[in-house]
Amino acid sequence: MRPVAQLLHNKFVVVLGDSIQRSAYKDLVLILQRDAYLSLSQLKNKGEISFEQDCLVEGGQLGHMNNGTAYREVRQYRTDHHLIRFYFVTKVFSRYMDSILADFEQGIKPDLVIVNSCVWDISRYSREWALEYKESLNKFFLKLKTILPEESLVVWNMTMPLGKKILGGFLVPEIEHMGPSLRFDVIEANYFGATLANKFGFDVLDLHFQFRFSLQHRMKDGVHWNAVAHRKITCLLLEHVAQAWGVELPKLDQINADNRPPLPENRSWQTATSSAPARYTGPYKNQRCSYPPVMPAIHYNYGPVDQGQRMVNGFRSQFCHDDLPPHMTAGYQSFERETFYRGANNSAAAPNWPVNNLVMKQKRRKPCTRERLHPYKY
To answer: Measured between alpha carbons, how far is 328 from 342 in angstroms, rounded to an integer?
Structure first.
């Protein structure tokens, strides 16, 4: 679509993460070419040689296809004025991630980095994952801050809600015992990722908050999401980028998945998804977020909500449908109120901030549009 192409004109975009991030990359590549949803097969496939005129650079079908932590997949979509690259990673900081960052340090610097690494980190490496995950996040953000120029925009995507029952290739037999508790571990890990990203001055997009009422768009495997959800993710990302760069997109509307007809009840990977062209319902607004960033509060007891915690009114049936305790996603606290995060029962330390869906850090200067003399090279 033309407004998207204009926003990302001559920009190098990098997407880092797992299969959810891969689908986000695919939807971004698709929307740059035509107004349509991803098909079910496009959502399911991994490691294919080509997707919508992109190319597989490394791993995938060029190597050994597997569900292990050593799986690699690097994809790239390149035109005369766009370069979108995806790296599949299973750990937020590792020897492999260090090699990726070294490529950025020695080569073309990304204008936009969209990143998330969580579910694999907290399930595949250690049962006592919290300390190691926080250390890895610190190393990753520090290295990223060191090698990227100030004008580069980094958006940390918080992990989307997991289901109570997880199926499919991700949950290998060795970690099946973690299935019931993994959705709660993700909330804790989201807290670590968001607070550390904010500490290093990076932006945070709270997809867990955005999709807490959209569980009908999650696949039956409890991890992946359908094409409607991924188009909404794309729109949220583009809106975030436009706001951060101070760009007003002309009449580019955002899909609101909650306002569209629901998908069939059998939400499995085998169920066909509509591939009809996307029709948008609401305009972007070039509006800077002026209040402090906020994120879901974390409470590990099932008692009364702490004083100062702000409750969202009108829980819908989809929210409680998955037995997710309301206190795990209902409250909002300020990143700047550290005493409240430590549990201080002080109403003065926990004001009622307005809800900020995007968790924006600050408006940034848009990278200069530059005509490159040669096509992008890997």
So the answer is: 16
Backbone angles phi, psi at 12, to 5 degrees: -100, 110
Q: 279-290 burial, b if ≥16 CB within 10 A, otherwise e?
A: ebeeebeeeebe
State phi, psi for 47 to the nearest 5 degrees.
Answer: 70, 15
Q: Are strands 55-59 and 112-115 parallel, antiparallel or unpaired?
A: unpaired
Find the length of the chain. Answer: 378
> Which tokens belong to 364?
């940034």
Of 206, 216, 214, 213, give the one whose Cα is nearest residue 186: 206
The burial class, CB within 10 Å (0-12 / 13-18 / 19+), for 34 is exposed
Average pLDDT in the chain: 75
* Tokens linked to 360: 């924006």
The pairs formed by 127-130 with CB atoms below 8 angstroms and a separation of 24 or more are 129/185, 129/189, 130/188, 130/189, 130/192
Per-residue model confidence as pLDDT tens digits over 174-187: 666 676 789 999 99
- By the 8 A CB rule, do 40 and 269 touch? yes
Helix (H) or strand (E) holding 187: helix 179-199
Q: Is 54 helix (H, G, I), strand (E, B) or coil?
A: coil
Q: Does the pLDDT at position 152 exceed 50? A: yes
Q: How far apart are CA 246 and CA 154, in angstroms?
A: 15
